[in-house]
Design brief:
Blueprint: E1 5-8, H1 21-30, E2 35-39, E3 45-49, H2 50-66, E4 74-77, H3 82-94, E5 98-101, E6 113-118, E7 121-125, E8 145-150, E9 160-164, H4 165-179, E10 186-189, H5 196-209, E11 212-216, H6 219-223, H7 227-235, E12 239-242, H8 244-255, E13 274-277, H9 284-293, E14 301-307, E15 312-316, E16 332-333, E17 338-343, E18 350-355, E19 365-374, E20 377-383, E21 387-389, E22 394-396, H10 397-404, E23 415-420, E24 423-431, H11 438-452, E25 455-461, H12 477-483
Parallel strand pairs: 2-11, 4-5, 4-6, 10-11, 10-12, 12-13, 13-14, 24-25
Antiparallel strand pairs: 1-17, 2-3, 6-7, 8-9, 14-15, 15-16, 17-18, 18-19, 19-20, 21-22, 23-24
């Protein structure tokens, strides 16, 4: 049995604040002219300086108090534009309420206050009379609840995660220290703000810094990854984020013979210092293509890893990535956090567990992912549910997919391997419709048998909408199996 590997990020940062509301108050005082821009689907933009944001959200806080909201009460935030979600989030913080950032399409629970958009403004909706009173949790310093977010919902199951002020603040300060970010940053985020990483990893972090921040809905970039560099140049961003599926699509576009050399649309955004990548495994080959074709300096693309229970990322890898590995390491834990891998017998990878103030006092939290630790830090392969059991050793789906993409597929970025639950030695492969032919099946079957000792059970057609993905781009394998069953 291999020994358990542990990485420690060192002492937790010293926190200056106990409550998230202090971050907005501080930003309005220190950097009143910096602010927050929200770009909507039609391309329109709304910007508030931090001083203006404080004024608007203070009014919302007063309206919540006037409606009977008490310290520690939950306030439901249903679907709304980014600007409204930001106004509502900080209104709740200033009123000492706990915003519940509902998943898209979720219904507001009875008995709670909610904030809804009416025209160009927000309104407070009071609970219906006769409904049972909503549970009440009084504020208790930094340990009090700050926000409720939901997991991505693999298989259609979303879990609410309550994060305290201490959890969010400790993660925010640690990630800034670890990566060297300060108030000189100008950030562009196309991750949904309803996602924990969009709201906390980007927005709250940038308010803590007092940085200029721009938020856009993800649909445009997901449908055309080539727009990303255009947006980064237009916004003059120094810090941004991209999901591994978008990274792959961008690498495919850059390496395509149809893309002219020196294409201005895909040229290096000169102000960009950090392009974070997280949410799924990261192929080193994609990173190498983008660095070479777009003339990005090594180390601009930074891998990261986290989870909703920790308030988003707590492991990241500043510095150039090793080119010799098929999957890019995500690096080392941030201050106050630790990560360990519980080895699987006879295998090089094992279960990933994390420990951090961001995890709410849980000593070691099992993430459900597998990976390994070496000199480059932590490498994440993906979910434990995606392991194949061959005769020689276990294989993770990420290993198979990276290898299978070397075969002559017409659409190598539209390829997902899933184990047969009743027999983990068999593979179901989901591909684009135009890749479904007998020659492809024979090539895949031979490859799986010779290289991995696995059996091809079936090649299935992807649904017309392609690979089901979370809002930020991560494939939802359980939903894929349901949609093609």
């Amino acid at each position: 049995m291999p020994e358990m590997e542990v990485l420690d990020g060192g002492p937790a940062p010293v926190l200056e604040h106990l409550h998230l509301a202090d971050l907005l108050l501080g930003a309005a005082r220190r950097r009143p002219c910096n602010g927050i821009s929200s770009i909507d689907e039609a391309g329109g933009s709304r910007r508030r300086s931090y001083a203006e944001q404080l004024t608007v959200s203070s009014r919302i806080a007063r309206e919540l108090r006037a409606a009977g909201q008490r310290s520690g009460d939950r306030v439901m935030l249903p679907d709304m534009p980014n600007w409204a979600l930001i106004d509502a989030f900080w209104g709740c913080q200033l009123a000492d309420a706990v915003p519940v950032v509902l998943p898209a399409g979720a219904q507001v629970a009875p008995g709670y206050h909610s904030l809804v958009v009416t025209g160009a403004d927000l309104s407070v909706v009071q609970p219906e009379r006769g409904r049972p009173e909503a549970p009440h949790e009084p504020f208790d310093g930094a340990e009090g609840a700050a926000v409720v977010c939901f997991t991505a919902g693999g298989g259609g199951r979303r879990r609410p995660i309550t994060l305290t002020h201490h959890q969010v603040l400790s993660r925010t300060v640690a990630t800034c220290e670890h990566n060297g970010w300060d108030d000189s940053e100008r950030t562009y985020n196309c991750m949904p703000l309803r996602h924990v990483s969009g709201l906390l990893m980007f927005h709250v972090r940038d308010v803590y810094l007092g940085a200029e921040q721009i938020h856009e809905l993800p649909q445009a970039i997901l449908s055309d990854p080539g727009l990303l560099f255009e947006r980064l140049r237009h916004t003059r961003a120094s810090l941004s984020w991209i999901s591994p599926p978008v990274l792959r699509s961008l690498a495919t576009r850059l390496s395509s013979p149809a893309t002219p050399a020196g294409c201005a649309r895909l040229a290096n955004p000169a102000t960009l210092r950090t392009l974070m990548v997280g949410g799924d495994r990261i192929a080193s080959s994609d990173v190498a293509i983008i660095e070479r074709q777009a003339a990005l300096s090594p180390g601009v693309i930074v891998a990261g890893y986290g989870l909703t229970e920790a308030g988003s990322g707590i492991v990241s890898a500043p510095g150039a990535a090793p080119s010799s590995k098929p999957v890019m390491p995500v690096g080392h834990p941030e201050p106050g956090s630790a990560v360990r891998v519980i080895p699987h017998a006879g295998n090089e990878f094992g279960d990933i567990e994390v420990s951090s103030p961001s995890c709410g006092g849980v000593h070691w939290l099992r993430t459900g992912d597998v990976g390994f630790i070496d000199a480059d830090g932590l490498t994440v392969l993906g979910s434990k549910a995606d392991i194949f059991q061959a005769q020689a050793r276990p294989y993770h789906a990420s290993e198979l997919e990276e290898s299978l993409r070397g075969l002559p597929w017409q659409h190598p970025d539209q390829l997902v391997a899933c184990p047969v639950r009743e027999d983990l030695g068999k593979v179901v492969l989901y591909v684009s419709a135009s890749d479904l032919d007998g020659e492809a099946a024979r090539a895949v079957s031979g490859f799986l048998h010779e290289v991995a000792g696995l059996e091809l059970a079936q090649i299935k057609r992807l649904p017309p909408t392609g690979i089901p993905r979370a809002a930020h781009g991560k494939p939802l394998r359980a939903l894929l199996a349901q949609s093609t069953s």
